[in-house]
Amino acid sequence: MNKVITLNHGSGGRQSHDLIDGLFADRFRMDKPLTDSAVLPGEGFVLAFTTDSYVVDPLFFPGGNIGKLAVCGTVNDLAVSGAVPLYLSATFIIEEGFGFHELEMIVDTMAEEADRAGVRIVTGDTKVVGRGKCDKLFITTSGTGFLSSESAHISSGKKVRPGDNIIVSGSLGNHAIAVLGARNNLGFSSPVESDCACLNHMIRDVLDSGADIHFMRDLTRGGLASVLYELETITGYGMNIKEKSVPVDEPVKGLCEVMGFDPLYLANEGKILIVSEENDSQKIINILRSDISGKNSSVIGEISNIKNGNIILETAGGGRRIMDLPSGVQLPRIC
Amino acid sequence: MKFIEEYRNSELIGKLAGAITKNASGKYNFMEVCGGHTAAIRRFGLPSLLPHGINLISGPGCPVCVTSVDFIDRLVSYSRLPGTIIATFGDLLRIPGSKSSLEQERSSGADVRTVFSGFDALQLAVSEPRKTVIFPGIGFETTAPGTAVVIKQAAGMKLQNFLVISAHKIMPPAMEVVAGDGVKLDGFICPGHVAAITGSDVYRFLPERYGIGCVVSGFEPLDLLQSVLMLVNQKNSGNPSVEIQYSRAVTPGGNKKAQKQLFEVFEPCDAIWRGFGTISGSGLKIRESFRSIDAETRIPLDLKTTAENTSCICGEILRGLKIPSDCRLFRNVCTPDNPVGACMVSAEGSCNTFFRYS
């Protein structure tokens, strides 16, 4: 069979990793591990730089639209690297025939969201392609910001040690289920709203508290499982996760049962994972819970002292099993 | 969550596991036939709760896993016909045929769409009158009645552009092959959803002719552990029988209405099972009276049946003779991203669940 790109290569799972590591990062000689933002030390400053494309279908869904995703996603990628997000670019690829009113609504949302996050959209590009050459609208945003040299280690996971606590900032899976529900071909409507939100202020509060943060990532494509797998790969430590402590809202749980999805693998757009010293975890939880986006935050497990260990999930019933990187597409085009 | 959390109660799970450990002495080989059971057993980490002497073997009840290379080759051929849409359950996309898969064909331009039911496929045919929509009917007695109803509707509507290719199968003949296959089995955990349609009486030949006990089980951790306990007790008493653990859904006689629908549209035929070869009377083909909906009648294909990969031991795994880690392709060549055998494709397949959860 001739090797071709399939939807699986964009899923955030194993094939995406293989494509990015084996082709892009390899040919571009990028520094590893690859992180949400590139962290670039300069003379007397450290710069964070990131980019992301958005192809969500449908463009509007409960709790947001493609524009909100495009701003929040890039702001969050900068923020979880420890940076203060400052400037964004926005590129629009628009299909001929796309409604001006819809475009206006999306751009207004982006402006509002950028104001709320305290970032400025300062440059961009527009391309229009013929009907059928792209699906309505694709957006790419890039972003940059500065971080203190004390925070530069956060995305690398260098300080992660056995016994560290693993924290998630809230209920998982809402974004994926909200987008799925908004697609009219699935035959269900759900009360679930996307968690899409800029988290930079909440993250700043955590960093300014002086808590010792050893690692931070946002839980987007591939969900919690994907980020834990990444953490295992870069640190070499196994993890023990308690399924009972992983927050999942009731409607999401129910829909996952019906559709056969696992919330641990579903995408979020307003959730982060933090690894910290055990002594600091309560302080971090208190700060997260004072923000609306972090109100269901919880310690879900710890880094184990087994080198080259696995991610062991203690299931709600008390059984134990290995949690692996998701493979293939759970749901295409949700971000 | 109501009606789910209750069946995952850790205290009760602990108690049941304790009772199993107390009652079990020596070795027990139990086969869970259904892929849904295999996935639940792994997902909830149940083997970690059972005493070492209890060995759970995965059987041939994942419909995706037993789908033949020949059937996939047919779908691939159909997908290449101009003006044709293959409207399929997502699981079928990645099963390898002899040279290609539906996923590969879709990446090369074929119109292959994922649907969640036969009704979705029928709707698609109504909304795309210029295209021919082919729905692969796949699954056991659980899903076959649904396909039957869709076929009857399409026939009633005199829809010209909706066709079904049937790979539907029935469970008992394959269980009979396993029972007579030289695996020493002490009990079957029987598929709950299949039995909701067929009733539990269809398994009576297993204790009667082969001396193997049967418990029809639900899909939650407490269901499965209770079923294991019932099988342990059956084995200890030396009195194998058919019991129903999943009594909230299953009766001895089953769902007569669904059975009627099923046999109005389908009739038994011989069918190829991946890894088993042809099993007599184990398939369901569309009856003559509904031939206008039958893809194989309307668009006959002249395809040679191709051999399966001889290194792949899916067949022995499905028959309970080997486990996935016995296969030299497992994890090296055959992975969920690049499945060689069908057991690696479906989330319910033995190799796939072993890969992810152990």
Q: What do you see in this structure?
A:
The complex is a heterodimer of chains A (335) and B (358). With 335 residues, chain A is of the alpha+beta class. Chain A has 2 domains: 31-151, PurM-like, N-terminal domain (60s Ribosomal Protein L30, Chain: A, 2-Layer Sandwich), CATH 3.30.1330; 157-322, Phosphoribosyl-aminoimidazole Synthetase, Chain A, domain 2 (Alpha-Beta Complex). Chain A is 29% helix and 27% strand. Chain A has helices spanning 14-27, 66-79, 100-117, 174-182, 200-208, 223-235, 250-259, 281-289, and strands spanning 38-42, 45-54, 60-61, 64-65, 84-95, 120-129, 137-147, 165-168, 213-218, 237-242, 272-276, 298-307, 311-314, 320-322. Chain A has a 7-stranded mixed β-sheet, with helices on one face. The longest helix of chain A has 18 residues, at 100-117. Chain B has a domain at 69-170 and 254-298: HypD, alpha/beta domain 2 (Rossmann fold), CATH 3.40.50. Chain B has a 5-stranded parallel β-sheet with strand order 2-1-7-8-9. In chain B, a hairpin with a 3-residue loop joins β10 and β11 (277-286). In chain B, 55% of the residues are buried. Chain A binds chain B through residues 1, 4-6, 8, 14-15, 18, 185-187, 244, 250, 253-254, 257, 260, 262, 313-322, 324, 327-328, and chain B through 1, 4, 8-10, 13-14, 42-49, 94, 99-100, 103-104, 106-108, 116, 120, 221, 335-337, 347, 355-358.
Chart the SSEs and their pairings.
The complex is a heterodimer of chains A (335) and B (358).
Chain A: H1 14-27, E1 38-42, E2 45-54, E3 60-61, E4 64-65, H2 66-79, E5 84-95, H3 100-117, E6 120-129, E7 137-147, E8 165-168, H4 174-182, H5 200-208, E9 213-218, H6 223-235, E10 237-242, H7 250-259, E11 272-276, H8 281-289, E12 298-307, E13 311-314, E14 320-322
Parallel strand pairs in A: 5-6, 10-13
Antiparallel strand pairs in A: 1-2, 2-7, 3-4, 5-7, 8-11, 8-12, 9-11, 10-12, 13-14
Chain B: H1 10-23, E1 28-34, H2 35-43, E2 54-61, H3 69-79, E3 84-88, H4 102-107, E4 111-114, H5 118-127, E5 132-137, H6 144-156, E6 162-166, H7 171-179, E7 187-191, H8 192-198, H9 205-210, E8 213-217, H10 221-237, E9 242-244, H11 256-265, E10 266-273, E11 277-286, H12 295-298, H13 314-318, H14 350-357
Parallel strand pairs in B: 1-2, 1-7, 3-4, 3-5, 5-6, 7-8, 8-9
Antiparallel strand pairs in B: 10-11
